[in-house]
TrEMBL record:
This is Chromosome partitioning protein. SUPFAM superfamilies: P-loop containing nucleoside triphosphate hydrolases. It comes from Pseudorhizobium flavum. It holds the Pfam family VirC1. Transmembrane segments: none annotated. InterPro entries: DNA_Partitioning_ATPase, P-loop_NTPase, VirC1.
Amino acid sequence: MPVIAVANPKGGAGKSTTTLVVASTLAANGASVMILDCDPNRPIRDWRRGPSKNPLVVDGDVNESNITTKLDTYRRQHQFVFVDLEGTASRLMSRALARSQLVIIPIQASPTDAEQAAKAIRLIQEEEQSFEKTIPYRILFTRTSPAIPTKLERAILSQLRGGHVPQFGTHLNERSAYKSMFYHQLALEELDPADVNGLPQARDNAAKLAEELIEIVVGKVAA
């Protein structure tokens, strides 16, 4: 089953949020999902220790020595395996990228994030040369307005399209519900709409992103 790495050298781009939102949404809809939490702060491992009943499984004991074995084992046991990668280039990142059927590169609509996304793409291309294989990737815009895109966002989107950089059609919008997941240590379906503004819209956004991800990885696996 597919391994999906979430990578960006820049901190704060939304790697852990993207991973938790999409993975927990898939798990809530019946998929068997594992996350390898490789972020030094282990935010998803800490989330898993909370009260959530979402069936998502998290492994926070991952290092460069065991990640390859764990990925090979988990991909036989689960329908989706996500890897929330650390920000810096490392052997751990290299080994995760080499096993991935898709790399998600989350970015915010800013020139700095776009530059860091370019670095992530170069890292992927270096791994492709080293392992003589294609490693598919997609840019994912995070913390975007659910209403009208900003002028800067439209400019960056246009630049990426001009460079034929693949990207998700669905963005992960700016929603308080995504922060509430970490604060309350609950999944989206467990949060109370009375306590979280825009929760139905956040759930709908997460579902659409998960659906697009399924379409992409199912096509990659079939190919």
